[in-house]
Each structure stands twice: as C-alpha cells, then as structure tokens.
Design goal:
about 80 residues; 5-stranded antiparallel β-sheet; globular; binds zinc ion
C-alpha cells in the first residue's frame, strides 16, 4: 500500500477518504488541507487530476505523475504556493 503520509509539515492536513473513483475506478483521495478540499485522482496511464475546492472557487489541473504519492506531493505543492491571508 502506498505511503499516505502528508507531504507537508507546513499545513494542517488530514486524509478524509481514499477509495476508487465511483466513475472510473481510478485511485482517488480526498484531503482537507487547511480550509481547502483537495481531490487527487490518479489515472493508470500516468495522468493525475488535481481539484482544489475553496468553497466559492475551484481550481482544477491535470499533471503527469508516476504514482499517487507524487501526484499528492504535486497537489500539496500547488496549495503551498497559493497566496494566503
Ligand atoms: Zn479516472
């Protein structure tokens, strides 16, 4: 089983759900990162979808990823670089 530890010490984060996607069966995780809902979705062909839900806004991006761990790391990196109050 892949390592699910958070990739960041800077942020308050917690794994909510890890399960296959209802739509396509790909591995999917939902994290609460500070006040953001992060969804990471790993396609077996090496693409990853990252969805960051801030409540009244949403950011979606598609990246290349070797596995769920690197996809997750990428997603946390995006959030870390976001401007914050
Ligand atoms: Zn999928």
């Amino acid at each position: 089983m892949a390592d699910r530890s958070p990739t960041s010490d800077l942020m308050n984060c917690r794994l909510l759900i890890a399960r296959p996607s209802e739509e396509c069966g790909c591995p999917e995780e939902e994290w609460l990162v500070e006040n953001l809902l992060l969804t990471v979705h790993f396609e077996p062909d090496g693409r990853g979808h990252i969805i960051i839900d801030g409540g009244d806004w949403e950011v979606e991006s598609e990246v290349d990823a070797a596995d769920m761990a690197s996809l997750r790391q990428h997603a946390f990196g995006i959030i870390e670089r976001m401007p914050r109050e």
